[in-house]
Amino acid sequence: MSEETDTLIGHLLEVRSGQFVAKLLAEEEGFRPMVSVGGELEVVGQVGSYVSIRQHGCRSLALINHVEADRSDARTSRSAAGCLVTLTPLGQIAEKGSFQRGVRQFPTPGAELHVVAQDEINSVFAKDQRYRLNLGYLRSYPATGVCLDPSALCSRHFAILGQSGSGKSWSVASLIQRMVDAMPNAHIILLDLHGEYCWKDRNRVLHSAFKPEQTRYLDARALEIPYWLMTFAELIDLLIDRNDQGAAVQTAFLRETIYGLKKKSAKSLDLEMISLDSPIYFSLQEVYDSFKEANEFRTDFGKSKGPLFGQFDEFLVKLQSRLHDVRYDFLLNPVRRNRSESLPGLLRDFVGLGDPKCQITIIDLSPVPFDVRPTVSAQIGRLAFEFNYWNPFNREFPILLICEEAHAYIPREASTQFEGTRKTMERIAKEGRKYGVGLGVVSQRPHELSETVLSQCGTYICLRITNPDDQDYVRKLVPEGESNLVDVLTSLSRGEAMILGEAILLPTRTQVFKPDPTPNSNDADFYTAWISGPEDLDMDGIVDRWRRQGR
After folding, report:
1. Quick count: other Cβ atoms within 10 Å of Cβ 8?
2. Cα(265)–Cα(342) distance, rounded to whole angstroms?
3. Which one-letter DSSP state was computed for residue 203?
4. Which of 318, 303, 292 is CA-nearest to residue 236?
5. How is residue 102 annotated by DSSP?
6. Residue 134 burial (10 A CB sphere; 0-12, 13-18, 19+)
7. 185: three-class secondary structure by DSSP
8. What is the mean pLDDT of residues 191-207?
9. Are 314 and 246 in contact (CB under 8 A)?
10. Is 310 exposed, middle or buried (CB count within 10 Å of its CB: 0-12, 13-18, 19+)?
11. CA nearest to 455, candidates 171, 158, 153, 101
12. For residue 122, what are the contacts with CB-CB under 8 A and spacing of at least 6?
């Protein structure tokens, strides 16, 4: 029996631009449930496996995503013989074995369906092996590693999506570890909202999901990204309630006040031309005093009220409460970053060029109050963008910003509370690649994440997603020819992902390698804890940490 006949498993019935339908051989035609290819036994008709479509010397590669018994003869199906198979076409294999994405010459009904050999699969993935960014392996072909193109992955942005417990933190840690090993001059900034990638044990010893010599841990409060670095839109998010009737007047007066204070400070820096968003120090106490003076201003020896009398009562109460709240000191009362001249040192720490130099900068946002996390996150993202926007060597110094739990501060809805934050991140998504700023968004609720940001992502690493709304949202985002592959997301195991997009040659069901070390993201083991867990706790210590707002 020839090799061509030995691997034959069916024939094509129907051809569409993004989907093929084939019929497996019947038992009388020689159907075999398992076929030997290259010394390995392959199960015929398994969902997620690759098949080769051959006709007139042309070979196309396709992925099986649905198998259904042919019920036309009303017989009970006892094997896969005669089953109908739905295929997603992926690309063509040239005569020399090289793979080209997309089908240029479509087969016609009657084309042969063959099992794909291991060496054929290896030749498809061989092109990206040179990058050494090996994230995992094929579930259907464990000997074949799955490598990504780091330039396409980072410059065109990527999203890691999956429900809680699907392995997002696992995948993020594994990806970063392998990026740094493959590219020792990487510059990665990770926003850690829950303290999963750097954490302290009971003895207050710091642990990390990455090698100590590669990692710089920064508590967002100690880093001090102060208010005077915010854009005017971010300051509005922080200081003004947009639903307040006097919001328009407050905004106009705030604009005039801040611009005046910045122009005053700019003189000491020998700057003549500045904008409202120039990173120049101004005193927030002086802003408060200006609002207070206007709010209490009277004319005619106190007989007549000024034009703004009483209009800033709510603004003053809100600002004063923030200024007196120690939780916001890192933002509103900076100790180290209280001069314009402190900005270069902040940026050096921020991008990993401080002492010591490190490839990974982890910014821990877990101690930051919930209501200002979105503002601080947006500020960090904007700093990365502004740094490389003004860096003349940005193409030689690209930066990757990874946003954990991105839906929490880059919402899909045009929420008034996060409007400035959302616009900042959307700007990075739309313009970042021009200035060497890549964006990676990580979320367990894709349909709550900004559609603008997700639509700009060129690669999607999709872990298990069972929520129908999230599935539909992801299906609309991925390339049309690959949208039906989203159906497989419900059946993925932990740490298993469907990778689609520009960083990989073809849509691939991948088992992500376990990171070493692992992040601090494991679920609580209720069974073990409730059998052998502690019988008492240090209640005073818990209360003390709560009071100090420090974990």
Report:
1. 21
2. 14
3. T
4. 318
5. B
6. middle
7. coil
8. 85
9. yes
10. exposed
11. 158
12. 143, 144
> What tokens were used for 104?
């240029």
CA 174 centroid distance within chain = 14
What does the alpha-carbon distance between residue 533 and residue 531 come to, in Å, rounded to a whole number? Answer: 6
Contacts of 354 (CB under 8 A, 6+ apart): 216, 345, 348
pLDDT digits (tens, 9 = 90+) for 3-24: 556 889 999 999 988 889 999 9
| Residue whose entry in the numeric block shows the structure tokens 């295929």 | 87
Residue 54 near residue 112 (C-beta atoms within 8 A): yes
How many other C-beta atoms can be found within 10 angstroms of the C-beta atom of residue 197? 27
Q: What is the pLDDT of residues 117-136, one digit of tens each?
A: 777 788 778 777 888 899 99
Token reading at 53: 């479509």
Contact 171/463 with Cβ under 8 angstroms?
Answer: yes
CB 221 within 8 Å of CB 325: no
Identify the burial level of 375 via C-beta atoms within 10 angstroms of its C-beta, where 0-12 means exposed, 13-18 middle and 19 or more buried: buried
DSSP H stretches of helix in 360-443: 373-389, 419-431
Sign of CA dihedral 291, 292, 295, 296: negative
Per the CB < 8 A criterion, the answer to whether 268 and 262 are in contact is no
162: phi then psi, degrees, rounded to nearest 5: 175, 150
190, pLDDT greater than 90: yes
Report the candidate in 146, 80, 68 with the shortest Cα–Cα distance to residue 115: 80
Beta-bridge mates of residue 382? none
Reported as type and span, the H/E element at residue 452 is helix 451-455
